[in-house]
């Protein structure tokens, strides 16, 4: 994991095995000044624990009065997990306003950084 300023780039998977370490790094970002940017493009595997961490992060960022920007690849790990758990349709599209938030994190045509 890389932290620089108010951004965090995960260089590994975001599964239950990595969530504890990621949580500490992300908590530090929430306590820092300014808005937060997360880069998930290099991530190859995200499970429901990783999605739960992102949900908790979003809530913490909102309570802190900041904004959160997440970068994730189209057809990448985050999109595949969101489809698998039913937060996006099989095509990666949304059915509701709540799902639109997740779809907004997926970058059309993005490639790993």
Question: Keywords for this structure?
Answer:
113 residues; 4 helices; globular; 41% helix; Transcription Regulator spoIIAA; five-stranded mixed beta sheet
Describe the protein's architecture and organization.
With 113 residues, this protein is α/β, with parallel strands linked by helices. It has a single domain (2-107), classed as STAS domain (Transcription Regulator spoIIAA). Helix content is 41%, strand content 16%. The protein is built from 4 helices and 5 strands, in the order E-E-H-E-H-E-H-H-E. It has helices at 19-31, 48-63, 77-84, 97-105; strands spanning 2-4, 7-9, 36-39, 68-73, 106-107. Strands 1-2-3-4-5 form a 5-stranded mixed sheet.
CATH superfamily, please?
A: STAS domain
The third-level CATH topology is Transcription Regulator spoIIAA
Write the H/E string, N to C: EEHEHEHHE
Number of domains: 1
Point out poorly predicted stretches. Answer: 109-113
Overall CATH class: Alpha Beta
Average pLDDT, rounded to a whole number, is 83
Per DSSP, the total helix count is 4
* CATH architecture label name: 2-Layer Sandwich
Please state the CA-atom Rg, rounded to the nearest Å. Answer: 13 Å
Strand content: 15-25%
Q: Class by helix and strand content?
A: alpha/beta
Protein name: STAS domain-containing protein
InterPro entries: MlaB-like_STAS, MlaB_ABC_Transporter, STAS_dom, STAS_dom_sf
Pfam families: STAS_2
Domain STAS: 36-87
